Amino acid sequence: MPRSARKVTDRVTREARAPAPTRDAGPDPRCYRVDFSKIAQRLPGFRPGWDVRRGAIELRDAFQKLGLSRDDLEGDRYLRIRRIKRLLDEGRLDRDLRWKAA
């Protein structure tokens, strides 16, 4: 049974000592279920050396090294829809999402 997003979030925040997300974007309708039977069949002795905890720690450390803050990651620089909304609000894009002449 796949882990719920809440369980992964809880584990990441606990084990990577990272702050929990503060903004809820609502449920994600996409499905990330995967089937690993092919790799198990082709490489029967394979055991992955990476897990959620190690991945979370790697991301946390990289963000810290680059000096990225929560505001950086949750602002419009990296979130396309927020960026588009801001550009629309500022009048820099038209309703067809085309740049307006300066």
Based on the model shown, name its key terms.
102 residues; 2 domains; 5 helices; 0% strand
Task: Describe the protein.
The protein has 102 residues and is mainly α. It folds into 2 domains: 5-68, no CATH class; 70-102, no CATH class. The protein has 5 helices and no strands.
Overall shape: elongated
Main beta sheet, described? Answer: none
Task: Determine the strand fraction and express it as a percent band.
Answer: under 5%
Distance between the termini: 54 Å
Q: How many domains, in number, for the residues?
A: 2
User: What is the count of helical runs?
Assistant: 5
What is the H/E string?
HHHHH
Mean pLDDT, as a whole number? 82
How would you summarize this macromolecular structure in one to three sentences?
Helix content is 46%, strand content 0%.
Explain the layout of strands and helices:
Elements: H1 5-15, H2 37-42, H3 52-66, H4 70-74, H5 80-89
